[in-house]
Specification:
The chain is built from 8 helices and 17 strands. It is an alpha+beta fold. It has a 17-stranded antiparallel β-sheet that branches.
Length: about 425
């Protein structure tokens, strides 16, 4: 009935490429309040400087990383119907020394409908999620970012300090607040010979995700002339995978994937769509020649302050360092993979990945599609495949370079990806 699970955390901070080390603990109580409910609570903390964190023991002053607390209740029915229901609440804080502090809290309700086995739609779930983010910036951090931005844009530093100080005094940039309410559906059609997608060798798998951001605000606006600061938008993402036998070899297959998505803000500034709702490319389940969220397409136009509005911490990192809009509003990816069973529980894979994300569909061009290839190894454990992939950049649209242009092949062109479960 009761279970306590400790966890050791090793993960990479995508913003400064530093390693987070930490601990987590999860407490679970089964049959909570009867009815086969399950109560789960998790607390995790990870830091880029664990020695300093342990020495000071202060979340507010010395946390160079993040802390996260979550509580969830799962039950097998919803008003007596066989609908698996999960209620979840969470609170996350993140700190970067001398730069900013961020807090994120929210709640989510997820309904997973139990469908008959022999239907075209094999999975259906719906969810409602509300979250709010607050970021407090240090003045020195803002001054440095704004100064570099205006100095490069104007190529004249004579009056840049005056402009930056005026903006910081009057613009309210030291504090950013944003809220987002999502309502959406996930529709799945799994017609493969492996319903758990552990190692399908034949069939088709399709997943469609539809989300409405702040749709209720749009309704309030129409009914009561309510003018929210957050944008109203919809997000659609379609992923389709197909599998074929590999020369009739046992536990071997060809696999192909196409994934595409679009975000459209029909009311308000689309650049205020939360950064964690945008599209990203790169990583173990994307274009594997790049690290997670490390692939992007620069905008064809100049970024202005009218575009920016309130910025999250991740927005600042990319806009004022690299002058790009973090995350895309249009995404297109392709993958092809040959999966070969070697011996015992071990296998290998050879793959080609392509794709990117853009600010809008109008900025899509073929030369901005990133291309990578590579190979990997698999260990098929009883619960899921464990994989290590070596992705190699063939064409980098960020630098307009191909494989022969990299001066240091291993450091510049190779990316190592570790994942649980197949890439698709």
């Amino acid at each position: 009935i009761y279970q306590i699970t400790p966890e050791v955390i090793f993960n990479n901070d995508n913003q400064d490429n530093s390693l987070n080390l930490g601990l987590a603990i999860e407490f679970t109580k089964r049959n909570f309040m009867g009815g086969a409910r399950k109560l789960s609570s998790t607390f995790s903390v990870a830091s880029t400087d664990p020695l300093k964190f342990v020495k000071d023991l202060s979340l507010s002053d010395s946390l160079y990383g993040y802390a996260d607390a979550r509580i969830a209740i799962e039950q097998p029915t919803f008003f007596g119907e066989p609908i698996n229901t999960v209620y979840e609440g969470y609170y996350t804080i993140r700190k970067r020394s001398d730069e900013y502090n961020t807090s994120l809290y929210g709640g989510k309700i997820n309904l997973n409908f139990d469908l008959p086995r022999f239907t075209y739609v094999t999975s259906l779930s719906t969810f409602l999620n509300f979250e709010r983010e607050n970021t407090n910036y240090k003045r020195n951090y803002l001054h440095k970012r704004f100064f570099n931005f205006f100095k490069t844009a104007q190529n004249d530093s004579t009056d840049v300090n005056k402009v930056v100080n005026y903006l910081l005094d009057t613009g309210g940039f030291d504090n950013s607040e944003s809220s987002n309410m999502l309502f959406g559906f996930n529709i799945g059609m799994n017609h493969t010979n492996d319903l758990q997608l552990m190692f399908p060798t034949k069939g088709l798998n399709v997943n469609l995700q539809i989300e409405g951001g702040n749709t209720f605000n749009y309704i309030l606006d129409k009914l009561f002339s309510y003018k929210p600061e957050t944008p109203e938008y919809f997000k659609v993402q379609l992923t389709s995978s197909v599998y074929f036998p590999f020369f009739n070899l046992e536990r071997s297959a060809f696999a192909f994937k196409v994934r595409s998505g679009i975000i459209h803000a029909y009311n308000g500034n689309k650049f205020k769509v939360p950064i964690n709702q945008r599209f990203y490319s790169g990583g173990a389940n994307s274009v594997r020649g790049w690290k997670a969220r490390d692939l992007y397409s620069k905008s064809d136009r100049d970024i202005t302050f009218e575009d920016i509005g309130d910025l999250s911490s991740q927005d600042f990192e990319l806009i004022f360092n690299q002058k790009i809009v973090p995350g895309g509003f249009f995404m297109l990816e392709f993958s092809a993979e040959a999966r070969i069973h070697l011996f015992g529980d071990f296998g290998s894979a050879f793959f080609v990945d392509a794709g990117n994300n853009w600010e809008s569909p109008g900025e899509f061009t073929y030369r901005k599609i990133a291309l990578s290839t590579g190979f990997g190894f698999r260990y098929y454990s009883p619960f899921a495949p464990i994989r290590v992939d070596f992705g190699i950049k063939l064409w980098d649209p960020q630098r307009n370079q191909n494989l022969s242009d990299w001066p240091h092949f291993y450091n510049d062109a190779v990316s190592i990806q570790i994942g649980i479960g197949e890439a698709f």
